[in-house]
Amino acid sequence: MKFKTSFFFFFCSIWIYSQQKFSKEISFVNDNDLYVSTIKDRYYTNGVSLSYRFLSSSIKENLEKRILQWQIGHKMYTPYKAIVTSIEDHDRAFAAYVFGGFGFTNVYKTNQIFSSSVEVGVIGKNAFGKELQDFIHDLYGFKKATGWQYQIKNALGININASYDTFLAKISSDFVDLTWVNSASVGTVFTNISSGFYGRIGLNPLQKITNSIAFKSNLNNQNTNDTREVESFLFIKPSVKYNLYDATIEGSFLNSNSEVTTEIISLVFQLEIGFRFTANKFQFGYVYNFNTNESKGLRFNKGNTFGTIAIHYLVN
Description:
Layout (H helix, E strand, L loop, with lengths): L1 H17 L5 E9 L10 E13 L7 E16 L16 E14 L3 E12 L5 H12 L14 E18 L3 E12 L2 E13 L29 E15 H4 L16 E13 L2 E10 L12 E12 L1
Antiparallel strand pairs: 1-2, 1-12, 2-3, 3-4, 4-5, 5-6, 6-7, 7-8, 8-9, 9-10, 10-11, 11-12
């Protein structure tokens, strides 16, 4: 009887929260190859970001909502393993990038979403990649990394990012749909453009893209027509990226003193497969990420994999 009562109140709480409007969200996202393998530690090995998103108080007539965001983040890269004593064995440079950013997302009534952001940070020793990797390795009982003295040298990082998503079609009632997704970055750290598709398979009816955790459009207030809804779905996101410049591989054009640099591969295939769901004020997600090689001359030339864990918390 006690179990049945707890079960009842749990689902009542989910229903109550789904009927509310939440206008703010705090998010923590962590990428790490540890989430797909306990022995692999290479290339894009760790990324972490903390962000705060909130609804704008003023929107235009053609907008469903406008969401603003502050973000801090860190990305870390290593050669084929984190312990490489000889500079000749570095098939990719050690590199780190730390940044802060501000951006906005325009959610249109026509089932289209446009986002843009500006990041300012630094790559190189001042991004504290070695210190962060040593902390992570100490946490899990791994050996400390060796070779960071040859990392990409310090340089200013300024990047402008943009994305555009447009809903294409429902494939099967309200449980399967498809969206065309595009993104681009221009700056002193990354310059690239990508295009692909985002397919969702719902375990319950899917929310429209203008009010879904899939597209970070789930915030609402008294001026919006939607409320927070329960969501749970599987997704697949294949895309193609064209790289024009990557300072974590080539070294920055603002500082040509990096001892280890390699040539980028222009055309890269990317695949994300994951699961997202809501639980009261929380949203959780796990993503398996794969991409073909982004740098020439790698010892492991069959692509790279890593996992993503995301936790989001809604605030009234």
